[in-house]
Amino acid sequence: MTVELLEEADAYTVNWDTELDVPIFRWDGFTEGEEFRENSRRWEEIMAERGVDKYIVDTREITAHEDADKQWLAETWIPDLVEQGIRRGAGVYGESTIASMEMEQVEKDLSAIHPDYEFRVFPTEAEAKSWLAEQ
């Protein structure tokens, strides 16, 4: 497996998995509000530039998202991704019970947004990649 670094910022890192042709977005620290939205918009730009229809987001370094940010993801970001042609997202979550419970709810909520979009969560990046490879 070959992974190439695409972009690094204070709050995140973006790698490219050359085998699956998918971006792997990793939160390196907690963000909220406008910073969270700006970073997410940048990820959206990267997906558009690369012409992908699936991605991985690694949230192991954070435990939770603010409610307002989750609402923005559901009402704005995911619909924009679907319009752009994104069909699958895979999340990798931390080992804490809180993170696990939150990500399971996020999986349910995000997958319900649009019939052409599915978001699944996994405890490891390998499992996320395996699922995306089957899609």
Describe what this molecule looks like in 3D.
The protein has 135 residues and is an alpha/beta fold. It has a single domain (3-134), classed as STAS domain (Transcription Regulator spoIIAA), CATH 3.30.750. The chain has helices at 33-50, 67-84, 97-111, 125-134, and strands spanning 3-8, 12-17, 22-27, 54-58, 88-92, 118-122. A 6-stranded mixed sheet has the order 1-2-3-4-5-6, with helices on both faces. β2 (12-17) and β3 (22-27) form a beta hairpin. α1 (33-50) runs parallel beside α2 (67-84). 26% of the residues are buried. The model has no long low-confidence stretch (mean pLDDT 90).
Radius of gyration: 13 Å
Strand content is 15-25%
Runs in which pLDDT lies below 50 for 5 or more consecutive residues are none
> What is the helix content?
40-55%
Terminal Cα span: 18 Å
How is the main sheet built? 6 strands, mixed
Shape: globular
Average pLDDT figure: 90
For the record, what CATH class applies? Answer: Alpha Beta
Number of helices: 4
Number of strands: 6
CATH architecture: 2-Layer Sandwich
Quickly give the structural class.
Answer: alpha/beta
Biggest sheet strand line-up: 1-2-3-4-5-6
Number of domains in the coordinates?
1
Query: In the CATH hierarchy, what is the superfamily?
Result: STAS domain
Report the order of strands and helices.
EEEHEHEHEH
- CATH topology group: Transcription Regulator spoIIAA
Protein name: STAS/SEC14 domain-containing protein
